[in-house]
Amino acid sequence: VIAEDSVLLREGVTRILGDAGIEVVGSCETAEDLLLKVRSYAPDVAIVDIRLPPTHTDEGLRAALEIRARHPGVAVLVLSQYVQVALAMKLLADSAEGVGYLLKDRIGNVKDFIGAVRRVEAGGTAIDPIIVSTLLDKRRSDDPLGALTPREREVLVLMAEGSSNQGIADKLVLTLRAVERYVSSIFTKLGLPSSGSESRRVHAVLLYLRS
Amino acid sequence: MTAWAFAQGASVDLTGRPRRLLLLTMALAGCAAAAAVSVISYNIDELGAGVDAVLVGWITLAYVLCGLLAWSRRPESRFGRLMVAAGFGPLLSRLSEVDEGLPQTVGVVCVLLPVVLFLHVFVAYPSGRLEGLLERVVIVAGYTSAIGFGLVGMMLGPSEWNSVIEVVSRPGAGDVMLDAGRIAVVAVALAALCLLAARARASGRALRRSLVRVCFALAVVTGALTVLSRLLDLPAAEPIKWIAFALIGLAPVLLLLGFLRAHLARSAVADLFVELRAEPAPADIQDALARALRDPSLTLVYWLPEFGGYADLDGREVDVRERGVGRAVTLIDRGGAHVAALLHDPALGDEPELLGAVTAAAGMALENGRLQAELRARLEELKGSRARIVDASQAERKRLERNLHDGAQQRLVALSLELDLLEEQLGPNTGASRRLDVLRRQVAVSLEELRELAGGLHPAVVTAHGLAVALEELAAHAPVPVRLTVTIEGRLPETLEVAAYYLVSESLANIGKHARASSATIDVTRHNGEVVVEVVDDGVGGADTERGSGLRGLADRVEALGGRLRVWSPRAGGTTVRAEIPCGL
Predict the structure, then answer these.
(1) Would you tell me how many other CB atoms lie within 10 Å of the CB of residue B201?
(2) Cα dihedral value B43, B49, B54, B55, nearest 10
(3) CB contact under 8 A, A139 and B481
(4) What is the three-class DSSP state of B340?
(5) Which of B463, B476, B478 lies at the smallest CB-CB distance from A135?
(6) Contact A120, A100 (CB under 8 A)
(7) Which of A199, B13, B346, B520 could form a disulfide with B537 if both were Cys (CB 3.0 to 4.6 A apart)?
(8) ipTM, 2 dp
(9) Which residues in chain B are closer than 8 Å to A135, comparing Cβ atoms?
């Protein structure tokens, strides 16, 4: 299901998803309509523009939070024109499972966008690189991030964006084992427990970066 | 004689406050005159000469001393000088009892002068001036007939007196002339009595003044009878004379009391000033004025420029030209414009200085009140227009931001989507696909720029998601580590949130540019109905609050919302920017 008030974008997204073999079961303009459609179609993913009528403020975000609360089986990918850490964290408040927060511009890069939709659908996480870089650039008084090697930093960024170990290995042209080594080294340096699923891992990393 | 000349000279020369030496000399001369007149009177071989001596001495002393007092306290009024002159009258008159040629001649010529002098004093009360033509005619006639008939009589060598100016010896004719003088002076006294009565009718109810006037009238009547007793063989001539003398002597005492009251009234004016300084309500102003003027019937009416008329405290229109019986009007004007008017007892016209002072005080207080009200109104208006300007500019920026977002941004995203699809269809590594990739990047840069532009126009995230969310982003991008604390639940009025957002944004930018700080804190709290936004850094301080246009603009924004912006920036002591904005919740 897609909720997006700009016809142009709604049609564009519908088309690229269709081209990628993802079926769009419904599209709508308002948050109310979206909730109705999610309930009746029970889709795998809901793609939601954060700014929806009537007030164009936070209707989309509220609808996304409601879907997360009422329909845990439906993954939510929020498209936003703001680069807002706080908004992303609102969405990720409880868990990072099946959640995405992307800048709207990302739609322009079809491959990445489709990848994010698939990742979210599979219960993973998709966090916009700008959010991650904002968090990483955030200045801290005593910064354990400074202890990371440049390679570890790269891995951390991809991890925070929601990439799986395999995804990181592919992007950085590394072996899976090497990635796992980096990950455990990062967790040790940041003092985080390195257990749990990948989405839990994302959650922990983001919470850590935000604090 | 010398004292008389002195008094005359002094009254001509001096218009300002008399010198102390002159007053002292006059007082001594007065005492001497009183002593002389008592001695002369005592030596007259008549029944009751002792009583005479005491009364005439008292009259001389009372008039001279009271006159000097009035003269020194109110030099601008002629009344004091007139009284002093009148005080020396009895001495001149009593010279007629001295059995020497020259003094007796002078004495007989001036024998009626004291009567006219006292009449003059009574008629000229309280200003010392003869206001009307009739009064002037009466008094001039009095002086002329008193001196004229006496002079002519003495030239004719009257039977009873030694005259040094005798021209022809016609004793019978001389006696007739002297009697004619008496009759003329009695006539003048009666005329003066009529004038006093007429004035008493026109005047108000001030008890003290009526008392003075009654005293005057009785003095005139008994004085006239005394003069007549020389002509006719009236019964009880002596007691009448004594009553007349006593009344004449009583008048200055009453005047002195009145003068003291007027003195008290001046201190009432001082009290009035103090009272009016405390910005009293209109009804209180009226009461204060009534107290200061001792006129409980006083009414204060305000000039209403928009109606072109006066109205009283209840808003009823009052036509000040249409005076009621026994009412007088004093207009209070400032700078050529009407402010108010007092409707009061016409008797207050006798105390023009008091009325003038009170009017001036009231005028000042009323004008002050009006100016302050006007100032407050303008300030209110200014505040309103400032808030409206901020609101309007904010609304306009918001509209622009929306247009950018809904229009250009969406189109660019859609365009970049199309380009991507096109690139995929063309397949990789063709010349066209490379060109497309360049285009796509350009679109991405445009989107980035557009987002920044829109964000600068209006922080839409504040409107959509609230201050706390927006501030977190600012803190994340801050040039130094920031500890952010927002203890406000829920949303605030939009203009307030936007102002607070810009305040933090500008403060953080300043910290990056100037402060060389190592950390900063941002606190947003609610305190006593105000939202307090405080940004503190630990940098070098010394921020110039006057020159930084950024801070000035922030102050404008905050003040437009009725708040205050304060900046503490001691050298090497960090900088604190604190805004307190009433949130009206």
Answers:
(1) 7
(2) -120
(3) yes
(4) strand
(5) B476
(6) yes
(7) B520
(8) 0.79
(9) 476
